[in-house]
Amino acid sequence: MKVYKVIKITEADFGCEETGREEPMALLYLENAAEPEDTRYAEVAESVLSTQGIEEGKKVVFTGNGEIRKYVRVVAAIIVDKRPEDGRSLIFATQRGYGEYKDGWEFPGGKIEPGETPQQALKREIMEELDTEIVVGDLIDTIEYDYPKFHLSMDCFWCTLVKGNLILKEHEAARWLDKDTMDSVNWLPADITIIEKIKEGM
């Protein structure tokens, strides 16, 4: 999937009267950072820009049917704890406490800040969200998912605890889940797509 950066936004027309369109359009000038010669232009309804928060400097992608989406890249920690009493492997899941997807279950993590590697971002996010230090292991998979208002690219890593008590600072609730109970919570749409791979690796 190609990721473009919005380098300029201009008005594509001066109103709806002359064009017959239902709403004003904007012209986006897009550049692919991985391939600087790959420049693209897209005419987009102004309502799309506002609902998705697409501004100059933001990154976007195009879905399979040609729709534009704001690009959001995040990391997620699949924290594993092996219980010595019975040998079970448990996975830590958290319930989202804010925003449009409040109450949905997810794997903790967050956005990658400029200059960070995915691993550095994940360690920082878990310390901020859960007051816990982790070791970041192998990448399980990168999930690509189109939400209605943005495209999510989520790197999911195996992680283990180093120290800390997993204090919930942003989430409503948390659970340790095994293979048998992993389907007992209402996962967010992107997170549920990696459940089977996690089960295979436990």
Which descriptors apply to this entry?
Nucleoside Triphosphate Pyrophosphohydrolase, 11-stranded mixed β-sheet, 15% helix, 202 residues, alpha+beta
Break the fold down into its secondary structure elements and pairings.
Blueprint: E1 4-11, E2 25-32, E3 35-45, H1 46-52, E4 59-62, E5 68-82, E6 89-95, E7 105-106, E8 109-111, H2 118-130, E9 132-146, E10 150-164, E11 173-177, H3 189-192, H4 195-201
Parallel strand pairs: 5-10
Antiparallel strand pairs: 1-2, 1-4, 2-3, 4-5, 5-6, 5-8, 6-7, 6-11, 9-10
Write out the CATH superfamily name of the largest domain. Nucleoside Triphosphate Pyrophosphohydrolase
Which overall shape is indicated by the principal axes computed on the Cα atoms? elongated
- Number of helical segments with 4 or more residues: 4
Could you give the distance between the termini? 29 Å
The helicity comes to: 10-25%
Fraction in beta strands = over 45%
Largest sheet: 11 strands, mixed
CATH architecture of the largest domain: Alpha-Beta Complex
Radius of gyration: 20 Å
Give the low-pLDDT segments.
none
CATH class call of the largest domain: Alpha Beta
Q: Give me the secondary-structure category.
A: alpha+beta
